[in-house]
Amino acid sequence: MIFAFLGQIFSGSAQVRVIKDINYAQTTNVETTLNIYHKKKGPQNQDVIIFIHGGSWSSGKKETYWWLGRNLAKKNIVTAAINYPLAPGATFKEMAIASAQAVKWVRDSISAYGGNPNRIFLMGHSAGGHLCELINADSEYFKAVNIDNPVKGVILNDAFGLDMEEYLTKAEKDDGYTDFLRTFSADPKIWQMGSPLFYVKNVKNPHLIFYGGKTYPAIQIQSERIYKSLIAQNVPVKLEVIKGKKHVGMISQMIFGGNSLYRSISTFLADHN
Hints:
Layout: H1 2-15, E1 16-23, E2 33-39, E3 46-52, H2 66-74, E4 77-82, H3 92-109, E5 115-125, H4 127-137, H5 140-144, E6 151-157, H6 164-170, H7 175-184, H8 188-193, E7 207-212, H9 217-232, E8 237-242, H10 249-252, H11 260-271
Parallel strand pairs: 3-4, 3-5, 5-6, 6-7, 7-8
Antiparallel strand pairs: 1-2, 2-4
């Protein structure tokens, strides 16, 4: 298995060009940078995925997911993996505005890398899924960067925090709970403002939703809720429960380019031309 993985790395490196540390907010801050992955001899007007990493809003970085960028680029999907400001130095609103800035940069610039600015999809794992859906559902964030929502569709991979009001009201008040308060404050009204499910009636673009069969109960419950809400609104949506997978495994399984989630993603993009 190790040799097979190394073979994938080397073949991917030969096919894919990586452009690192582009600052999407015109600052010198590493927290507002992104990496682009695209096939060296790929066609023009490829689909584009912007990936927002997880890490409980307080950790994580784009470099960790180099394999995701390479695997998607090999499938003719231009990929931008982004950094964003983290807690305790930033609140969820600042993270969301930064994410919207990244989308704006991609819309304006991705054609230079073979991407189609009219085919931008958001993808996020865990807290990254929360940020994807928050900027997609709450119009405040794209308004803040002076653009209309350009997102063609959303891919949620074991998204955490789709309803932070519900979670923070009911969850055990452990160290993780205290950590989340750094991002969402101790005010229940703000918890609701930071909950994508509060704005779900605004959502009109297609969704692909994954969650693990052994992931956290809150993720299972809230993924099912957003799925059922979108169905009720006649929004195109597909839900896949990945048997046997826990929370971290839902993203780490994608290290391997043959993982079934890539096939689901490629089908999702093709179905929404």
